[in-house]
Write a structure and sequence with these properties.
alpha/beta
């Protein structure tokens, strides 16, 4: 199966999951995770109509995406990997959405750069729903206060929450927790679900799913 066929298969599976969950067709956006893939592999996915892409590393994205964005209008680029404060300026300059705001230092750095560059960037708070010490994200019990701090103190446009459940656990409870936290914070957007569990995420209310290997193949 070629990349275009794999992309179409993922889109069809999302639409079927929406239907099963009694959600409107198109309620869920597909973020094609292009990390580690070179521009020549990404271009056929763009040609097939995909416009939202996710990258894990600022430096890697800087190599390929300025050119790809120049070639095709309407590309939305999302940072879905951890952000270091010293990369905040580059991240704000390149990305349209940053999904990994997870601590005060990063929030302040991003707020400073958004103001300095006068560039609107949509933001998500990453939540460590599994309380995994090796994983980025704010802990669930501190999420509401952190969102309030980001919005009210820093004036950041937080629009949703993001999570990456533990690989060895049923993702359903983690998706349910993220949805509950979002409702508590008055947020409508939920970035959750990857290649192995995106259909489950759709059923739990995801508004975007991050799918890499099911489209591009294994790295």
């Amino acid at each position: 199966m070629d990349i275009e066929a794999q992309l179409n298969d993922v889109v069809n599976r999302i639409r079927l999951a929406e239907s099963r969950a009694d959600r409107a067709s198109g309620a869920v956006s597909l973020v094609a995770v292009s990390k580690t893939f070179e521009a020549d592999i990404i271009r056929p996915v763009i040609a097939a109509g995909q416009r939202i892409f996710g990258e894990n590393r600022v430096q890697e994205a800087q190599v390929k995406w300025p050119t790809l964005k120049e070639e095709t209008s309407g590309i939305e680029l999302r940072l879905i990997g951890p952000l270091q404060s010293n990369k905040s300026a580059d991240a704000v300059a390149l990305f349209d959405v940053i999904e990994t705001i997870d601590r005060e230092k990063i929030a302040r750095a991003v707020a400073t750069e958004i103001a300095r560059q006068n560039k609107p960037v949509r933001l998500y708070v990453q939540v460590n729903t599994g309380l995994e010490p090796q994983k980025a994200g704010i802990v669930p019990d501190e999420t509401t206060a952190f969102v309030v701090f980001c919005r009210d103190t820093l004036g950041l446009p937080i629009e949703g929450l993001m999570c990456i459940p533990p690989a060895d656990e049923n993702p359903g409870p983690h998706f349910a927790l993220l949805a509950k936290l979002a409702r508590r914070c008055g947020l409508e957007k939920l970035s959750m679900g990857m290649s192995g569990d995106f259909e489950t995420a759709v059923e739990f209310g995801a508004t975007s799913v991050r799918v890499g290997s099911a489209i591009f193949g294994t790295r």
